[in-house]
Amino acid sequence: MNAIEEIRADIPDFPGCEGEEECRASDEQVRSYVGERLAALPVDKLSDDEKALFEGVLFRCEFMNQEAFRIFDEDRNENRISAVLEADAALIAAAKKLDPSGPPGDALKAINDAFDRRDAAMLQQ
Questions:
Q1: CA 28 to chain centre
Q2: What is the pLDDT of residues 68-86, one digit of tens each?
Q3: Structure confidence by residue, pLDDT tens digits, 17-37
Q4: Contacts of residue 45, Cβ cutoff 8 Å, sequence gap at least 6
Q5: Is the dihedral of CA 64, 65, 69, 72 positive or negative?
Q6: For a Cys-Cys bond, which of 22, 41, 77, 110 suits 94, CB 3.0-4.6 Å?
Q7: Cβ–Cβ < 8 Å for 85, 4
Q8: 114: pLDDT confidence band, cut at 50, 70 and 90?
Q9: Which of 102, 81, 92 is nearest to 32 (CA)?
Q10: Residue 93 and residue 88: Cα distance in Å, rounded?
Q11: Whole-angstrom Cα distance, residue 38 to residue 100?
């Protein structure tokens, strides 16, 4: 299964990244998916460190990385598209590990790392 198929297993109408509008819709759908998973966490039960990480990751769900996306849009080539789709699949996989009944620390770190990987994919040469 390739990255786009993995993503579509969780986001069936995921448009991919062939055009600018599709890329923006895909970005929004992935961030929304992660945000919905985060919203299910019992924030009042998080430690102070977990709350700080939670808030940082939630912020990344709410807003697109404008600079990374601008650079990506200027040269949306096959390598960048493939890297972004792989990063999106990893981000969704990390979000799926969030369990509202368990300790979220490792999953929150994995989500933050996946967002970093996603930004790096958009910025790669």
A1: 9
A2: 888 888 888 888 899 999 9
A3: 888 889 899 999 999 999 999
A4: none
A5: negative
A6: 110
A7: yes
A8: very high
A9: 92
A10: 9
A11: 9
